[in-house]
TrEMBL record:
Keyword Cell inner membrane: no
Name of the protein in question: Cystathionine beta-lyase
CC terms in the record's Gene Ontology section: cytoplasm
GO molecular function: carbon-sulfur lyase activity; pyridoxal phosphate binding
Species per Swiss-Prot/TrEMBL record: Thalassospira profundimaris
Cofactor(s), by name: pyridoxal 5'-phosphate
Superkingdom of the source species: Bacteria
UniProt KW keywords: Pyridoxal phosphate
Positions of post-translational N6-(pyridoxal phosphate)lysine modification: 203
A single BP term in Gene Ontology: transsulfuration
Pfam families xref list: Cys_Met_Meta_PP
Amino acid sequence: MSASSPATTVAHDEHHFANAVVPPIFQNSLFTFNSFADMEETYSGKKVRPVYSRGLNPTVRAFEEKIAKLEKTEDALGFASGMAAISSSVLSVVKPGDRIVSVEHVYPDAYRFFEMMLKDLNVSVEYVDGRDSDAVAKAMPGAKLLYLESPTSWTFHVHDIAKLCAIAREHGAVSMIDNSWASPVFQQPATLGCDVVIHSASKYLGGHSDVVAGVVAGSRDFIGRLRGQILPYLGGKLSAFDAWLLLRGLRTLPARMREHQRSGLAIAQKLAAHPEVTAVHHPTLGRNMPDGLTGASGLFSFEFSPRVNIPLFCDALGLFKIGVSWGGHESLMVPALITRAQIGGPNSALRFNVPENLVRLHVGLEDADDLWSDLSAAIDAAL
Ligand SMILES: *Cc1c(COP(=O)(O)O)cnc(C)c1O
């Protein structure tokens, strides 16, 4: 079977365990050997087969193969969370004394991992505005890694991924991108020259707010090293049941993304026209589709005029729930006020350069007119 479109890829499986249309959950820790020779061939590397589910599990493998196909990479590796995927990938390329370059406004826990763990390991991190490719080029000499996220968290800045990855390559650095926002349906960074593509699978890939997981897609070499030299020791493996939930979620990923895009744009347009809204940060609203991005998901942010009382707005919402995370069926709202206090409080050396009047929305799969009624009534109640 050969399929290049995401909609066809997610509907069919490579493996047919007993002709089941849905792969079974291999809920076992170990796989025994038939003989001494079987064991010897496996341990000497002549044969690849599951031995222990920390390393290889058939349900997890089915998920990994599907992600590699969607991201158009040679291979992929599942993780227990998006952060396990990020930290394992970064730690696989840096050693003490190294320097990495990261774009600003990456996912806040990735930023904290850089600031609170990498720095202790004597790895320095320089942050640059990813919209400014000259600034990126200036920061790159000597760096081991260029870490990207596009669009960025909270601010939704869009970067020229092909250009930035070409700069990284010129400097002999690995390029990595967090592609959770767009999903492989709307952006396939490997086709733009990015070496390593990372997802929090807890968001759109799973899509139902019932699993925390991550995945890394890349070359056979990179994923082989991650699987052989990092995953066994850091141990952040994906569970078979979570992989099964992800395979189930992936079946509807292209259909869900179309709906998130449609409703998200409809709400963003209405907000942009609202007198109490001073800015809307949506990567594709009112502008040409940036290179490499073929659609928009349902996550964006906007800024309120000073007349709107944000705590009152939060409490007046009904359909939009107050909550972090995103990518599921349900609509969510989180005010930057809370995250600013959490990350960049007065005694913190960490920075969270996001305006106080900013609110992030995840537009879920509810009816867009119902969602707009909820939002506009909550704005009226907060004036
Ligand atoms: C949630 C998130 C992560 C972290 O993923 P977890 O699965 O929660 O560990 C990483 N990147 C982005 C952009 C996210 O939104």
